[in-house]
Amino acid sequence: MTDTQREAMPSPGEMGHPSGLPGTDPFITDGEVRETARVSQRAADSGQAERPSKRRRSRSWDRRTARAVAVATVLLIIAVLVGIAVGPADLSLSQVLEALATHLPWHPHISVPALDSAIVWQIRLPRVMLGVLVGAMLAGGGAAYQGIFRNPLADPYLLGAAAGAGLGATIVIVSGANTALTPPAAFAGGVGAVMLTYLLGARTGRGSGVAVGGGGTGSILLAGVAVAALLTAFQTYLQQQHTQTLAYVYAWILGGLSAATWSDVWLILPYVAVSAVALLAHRRLLDVLRVGEEEATSLGVNVPRLRLAVVVAATLGVSAAVAVSGLIGFVGIIVPHAVRLTAGPSYRLLLPVSMIGGAAFLVLADVVARTAQAPAEVPIGVITALIGAPFFLFVLTSRRAGQDLS
Amino acid sequence: MISFEDLTVRYGDTVALDSVAGLIADGEWLGVIGPNGAGKTTLLSAIARLLPYAGDIKVCGERAAGLSRRQLARLIAYVPQRPVLPPEMTVSDYVLLGRTAHIGYLRTETAADRQACAAVIDQLDLGAMARRPLRAMSGGELQRVVLARALAQEAPVLLLDEPTSALDLGRRMEALELIDEVRHEHTLTVVSAIHDLTLAGQFADRLMLIAAGQIVATGTAAQVLRDELLTTHFGAGVQVMTTDTGDIAVISRRLARVREPR
User: Fold this and answer.
1) Cβ separation of B101 and A300 shorter than 8 Å?
2) What is the pLDDT of residue A248?
3) pLDDT in tens, B226-235
4) Order of all β-strands in the sheet with B189-193
5) What pLDDT score does A51 carry?
6) Nearest-5° angle of CA A13, CA A19, CA A24?
7) pLDDT of res. A137
8) 0.95 surpassed by complex ipTM
């Protein structure tokens, strides 16, 4: 059999395709054409039909997504290296890498000063890792909320998670209880606030003609605004009643990673992992929702159930992140939009790339926060806005108008 | 087959459909006609279960109310009057949305789903544009893209709400001919709301005239497209003529806007 004959022979996966020629299959990108030709040749040679599963895998993670994920991952690796290399103690990159290496299994036998090792392993690395988890969660949660509420202004605090967490943390701080209780209280406050919002919002819509939503997004968003306002009012009242802890409460609200320890990382890792996996699993359905709730419904999506699943997933992760880092603003809005404007609006790409990009962004913002005025720290929320807003405006104005942002 | 009985839809205090009943046979093209606000879109949305209704709707022998969204989407493909077209989405990704009901909840599409979409895209001559974003498409092309998504759904029933309202004369004929072609090829039951009465008569097997939430006439074009019926329910003077090719043409008359008594 000549090569031309092999090329022209339809492979098993292409049977039934009217033209039968790989090159005319609209779903095959240039790179895949080559792969398809190669694989079909192998199948023709060996007479095996093992292609479908291989093909399935290569399609669900298309080249554009793979490229964007790769770029974001490189950024994240650089951010992490910068994060552990930069700090008040003057350590060279090789010293940092050596200190890291001693913690690897089967590590080479190098002697590293105990102080260097402690600075890298006990101070910088947990802080960077916490930044990774929190940044990924805020950006991923923001992207998911923008998709599920079809609203470009949605951020992960939209349904009251921030206000609830703030109230929970404030109650612990002003009551003088053990500060170890602050993260659990903030977590419970955040989850509780979103539950309250959801119950109220879903109730309002019911029976008023919204068969599709059963409590449409509009009423849920408005309930979120009201719940957030109410809880923030309680929180502010408590905060002002206890002037002796005012500064401490205020610092918590501003957010930051300065108190990061490994135990914080291990504390939130399970929530962040479950939440991230659950959100990523919904990325195709979030794409279906881009045609609106009514059409998504007619295409076979149970929209209220999808919305609940995404909100539960995002709330767990975001509340966990907020519990250990306070309220870090702006990440959840600008990172997804920057990804949308540079890489594309499909949620298949947007969710993973936002998570990785958000992690990189927050780690870098934290580096600036702790070095700009060292030894003092600038609140990280100030940095995320100071770097993020101009960058975002630059991206926004340098792209053509009329792109879909939801 | 679709049947509905005692079907009532209310928007607040307004009754949009008032206890209507009807039967649509397998493989039939039913044209739903009537003035603005008569209840055409409401009827289509109710059949697709996109709004709350009272009464009973059966699709392919199953009570629509008892089906999950996924099951219903495998029976009915619905194209709204103004579909949402995400500007940056490519044609192939958009058509792939039609496979939603065939893909497991948290799964991604399989090679079979891709094949089904590719076949539909080829059939509707969209192959060359498959990787274009929707913002770069013309109105006529978009109409084909939307139809492609509906066909990718592989449902036996196709509901079309004013499929040609935004198209020029030529594109309108093209679109309707295409729908006629695919419905024969896939043996689809088509229910479409159509404003243009002449086109409705030319393409649909049967017409259903709705006015003020009631079905006032059903039957062939010759039975439904009659001067006095149309004049009464559209509130404008019309003249119905039969052309030498046997088509029924509905022509509006100027200066005859006086509502005729029943």
Assistant:
1) yes
2) 86
3) 888 888 888 8
4) B76-79, B157-161, B189-193, B29-33, B206-211, B214-219
5) 40
6) 85
7) 95
8) no
A52 touches chain B (CB under 8 A): yes
Does the beta-carbon distance from B119 to A16 stay under 8 Å? yes
| A47 or B3, which is more confident | B3
Q: Give the distance from residue A111's alpha carbon to the nearest chain B alpha carbon, in angstroms.
A: 49
Q: Please, which residues have CB within 8 angstroms of residue B66's CB and are 6 or more apart in sequence?
A: none
Per-domain residue ranges for chain B? 2-225, 226-262
Helices (H), A123-261: 125-148, 161-174, 182-205, 217-241, 246-254
pLDDT tens digit sequence for A169-187: 999 988 888 878 888 899 9
Contact B93 A346 (CB under 8 A): yes
Q: What residue ranges in B12-119 does DSSP mark as E strands?
A: 14-24, 29-33, 54-59, 62-63, 76-79
**CATH architecture classification, A63-398:** Orthogonal Bundle (1.10)
Contacts of A308 in chain B (CB under 8 A): none
A298 versus A47: which is more confidently predicted? A298
With a CB-CB cutoff of 8 Å, which residues 186-245 of chain A face chain B? 209, 211-212
As a whole number, the mean pLDDT across chain A is 79
Classify residue A362 by its DSSP letter. Answer: H
A49 touching chain B per CB within 8 A: no
Predicted confidence at residue A183, as pLDDT, reads 87
Q: Which residues of B touch A285 (CB under 8 A)?
A: 105-106
Q: Which H or E run contains B5?
A: strand B2-11
Cβ of A300 within 8 Å of Cβ of B69? The answer is: yes
User: pLDDT: is A199 or B77 the higher one?
Assistant: B77
What pLDDT shows up at residue A52?
41
Using a CB-CB distance cutoff of 8 angstroms, which residues of chain B are in contact with residue A56?
108, 110-111
Q: Distance between CA A304 and CA A210 in Å, rounded?
A: 11
> What is the chain B residue with the closest CA to A279?
B106
| Domain layout of chain A by residue ranges | 3-60, 63-398
* CATH 3.40.50.720 for the B2-225 domain, yes or no: no
For residue A213, give how far its alpha carbon lies from the nearest alpha carbon of chain B (Å).
10
Q: Mind listing the pLDDT tens digit for each residue in B51-75?
A: 999 999 999 888 999 999 999 999 9
